Amino acid sequence: MRKILIPVMALLVLFVVAPVTTAPATKTPYTANVRLQITDPGKAWTTKGDILHVKGLIAEGLFNSSELGIVNAAMWKKLDFTLDTITGNGTMHGRFVLAVEAGTLEGSFRDKITDSTHLAGTVVGQGTGAFEGVKTIGTWEGDIMGTEIVNVLDAILLSPRG
Questions:
Q1: Half-sphere exposure of 80 (CA within 13 A, CB side)
Q2: Residue 160 contacts by C-beta under 8 Å, 6 or more apart in sequence?
Q3: This prediction's pTM
Q4: 33-69: per-residue pLDDT in tens?
Q5: Which end of the chain is more exposed for a tag (fewer CB within 10 A), N or C?
Q6: Number of C-alpha atoms within 13 angstroms, CB side, residue 136?
């Protein structure tokens, strides 16, 4: 019993005392241009005569970021919004998926709408595939122009692996 117990205790001490070497986490700031086309207008209805509600709108398009080395990656958004058609103010929220060959970044966003067409809000997401364990957090601002949504995203990519 002692012959087994002493080596096991030595191993435990070694694991407790030995430093764990891992790459430090990194923060990579980036800017991206996002250009989406509305491909499904979703379901729309009005309440109180001037409050427009839209549920399930889908927009698809391209994501470009020179800092991340991503050119023309596919991006998809599913969103809901409420807009006061008299004041032009409202809110928007939904989910997004950014797909590149190596993996995806998926998450949610929340925007304020002003002047009926201007968007400003926050984005948070996490990765799969090559982006496993990676998170992104940031803000974006943009405009709705007809059936097109154009945003500029300022964000940070957080990677626990360095």
A1: 6
A2: 25, 133, 134
A3: 0.80
A4: 999 999 999 999 999 989 999 999 999 999 999 988 8
A5: N
A6: 29
Q: Which amino acid is at 103?
A: G
**Which residue ranges form the domains of the chain, and what is each CATH number?**
22-159 (2.40.350.10)
Retrieve residue 121's tokens.
């809000």
